[in-house]
Amino acid sequence: MRALTSWPTYVALALAGAMLAGPVAAASPEKVENLPSAAQTPITVIELFTSQGCSSCPQADTLLKTFAERPNVVALTFPVDYWDYLGWKDTLASPKFSARQRAYATARGDGRVYTPQVVVNGLKHVLGSSEADIDKAIAITTPKIDPARVGVRVRSAKEHIIIDLEAARDPAKAGEATIWLALIRREVEVKIKRGENVGKIGVYHNVVREWMPVGVWNGTAATIKIAHHAVKQSGADGCAIILQRGDAGAIVGAALLKEW
Q1: CB-CB contact of 234 with 226 (8 Å)
Q2: What is the pTM of this model?
Q3: Each residue of 143-200: pLDDT tens digit?
Q4: Which one of 50, 157, 179, 249 has the lowest number of neighbouring Cβ atoms within 10 Å?
Q5: Of 28, 1, 46, which Cα lies nearest the Cα of 226?
């Protein structure tokens, strides 16, 4: 599960082939059709920043599963590495995930970085173990995003993972957004042998194993194809697509593929 340094090479090569075809700036020859209506199916994105070395995190790790089971919610776990010094090195963590959490704190201007922390729709942070606070953040951020929502779909075809993005409802105000690919493991169990949670079995849901940009959406309909062999060799068993303003702004579209 810690092979974060080896697999991006072959994924990058697969993506390079897709990007050379230029599918992000405009739709590919494959027709983009049957996309969900962004107005009718608003997607909430919940990102949990957690650590195996954090004694306050197990409750949040369990709670994330309940959100992941809700319809129209993409709930992701980002294990961070900055608590490793407490005596147990998080076996799922990546510096990329810690950097993403800090980018959010910088974008918000509050500097708040802690675990368990949930960021809702890229805009508001709350305590990751509080269901009431997360629901409140959903209610606050949803109307802020609704006017800019973009329909996103990810599906599995015979040889590719196919990502479809619809056109902006108002192209003049579309701007740009980063298309992020998160390769995930739907469930991971870890026996923690040291640190604050020694002796516990950590169970993590929709655990991000790699996080990388695959293009920039510019307001037009687009299709991206990623070879099955690239993502399957990563050890992931699902993926999420996140369409986000900048690196740490509002998330205006998302989709989840639970299995290949």
Answers
A1: no
A2: 0.87
A3: 999 999 999 999 999 899 999 999 998 887 788 999 999 999 999 999 999 999 999 9
A4: 157
A5: 28
Detail the DSSP E strand segments found in the chain: 44-50, 73-79, 117-120, 124-127, 152-156, 160-165, 177-191, 201-217, 222-227, 238-244, 251-257
The total number of structural domains in the chain stands at 1
Residue 237 lies in a domain: yes
Round to whole Å and give the CA distance between 139 and 127: 15
pLDDT tens per residue, range 54-85: 999 999 999 999 999 999 999 999 999 999 99
CATH number of the domain where residue 54 is located: 3.40.30.10
Q: Which domain holds residue 241?
A: 8-257
Report the first-to-last Cα separation within the chain, whole angstroms. 18
Instruction: Please calculate the CA angle 141-99-48 and round it to the nearest 5 degrees.
Output: 45
* Residue written as token pair 């107005």: 39
Residue 1 belongs to some domain of the structure: no
The pair of structure tokens assigned to 259 is: 């299995």
